Amino acid sequence: MLAVNIKLNLGMLMASKTSKLISYIYLLLVPIIAAGLGFGVGHVSYKFYLPVWLLNATLMTFASWSLGLNVIRQNDEAKSKLATAAFFLIVPWILISMFAGLGPPPETATEWTASATEQQVRYFMLVISGVSIAFGFVCLIERIKSKGENFYSILALTAILIAIPLFVINMLYWGFFLTELFKIMSTKNLLNYPEWFLPVRQLFGLISVIEVALTYLATFTIVLALRKAGWLMKTSSSVYLFFCSVAFVIIILSAFFAETFRTPGFAVSIPAVPFLIPYFLGVNLLKRIGYSQIQIEKSNI
User: What pLDDT score was predicted for residue 14?
Assistant: First the structure.
C-alpha cells in the first residue's frame, strides 16, 4: 500500500513538473508571438482580436498560477509575497498582448481619429501596465531587502518611482491629448500641426527619453539586487544586464544624436519594450518558486 501511494505521489509530481514546463514555455513565447503578429500582421477587427486576447489573458493567468503563483494558497508568507511581486511584473504583458491585434499606432491624424477609441484603450492599458510594474518593483524590493541587500534595491526603487509617473503622463499624452488634437485637426481639415504643438512634442520627446532611461536603469539595478540576494543565476542575470546596458546607452545617445540613433532609439523606447525584461524576471521568479515547491514535496514522500 505504501509503495502504491509513493508511486501515485511521484506520478502527480511528474505531472506537476510537466505542467510547469508547458506553462513556462508558453509564457516565454507570448511576447515573441504578440510582437510578431502586431508588427507583421497589423491591425485587425476587434471582433477577432478581443476574443483571442481574452483567451490568451486567461491562459497566461492559468500558466502563471501553475508555474508558481499557486503558492499564495499556502501559509508561507515570504513565498506568497515574492510570487505576488513576480505576477505584478507579468501583468503588463498580459495586457500588452492585446496589441497583437491592434498593430502599431496609426501614422496619420485621420487614421488615428478613425480608431480613436482603440488608441485610447491601447494607452490606458499601458498606463495600467506602468502602475503594475511599479507595484511589482516595490513588492520585490521589499522582499530583497529582507535578504540584507540595501544598495542596489534602493537605487532600483528610486529610479522606478521617478520613471513610472513620467511614463503615465507620457501615455496619457499619447492616448488622450493627441487623440483630441487629431480630432480637431480632422474636423478642421488641418494638414499641419499648430505651431504651439511643436514645443509640446519636443517636451514629451524628452520626457520619453528620461522615463525610458530610468526604467532600464531600475531594471539593471534590480537585476543586480536579485543576483546578490541569490535569486538569479549569474548567466541569466548577465544577459539581462547586457540588454539593459545596451538599451540605456542607445536611449541616452538618441537624445543627443537623433538622426543617427533614430531607429534603435525608437526600438528601445516602444512603450512595451522596457517592460520585457521585468516580465521575464517575473516568469523566472515564478519558475524558481514553483520548482522549489516540487523539491520540497518530493523530499516529503
Answer: 55
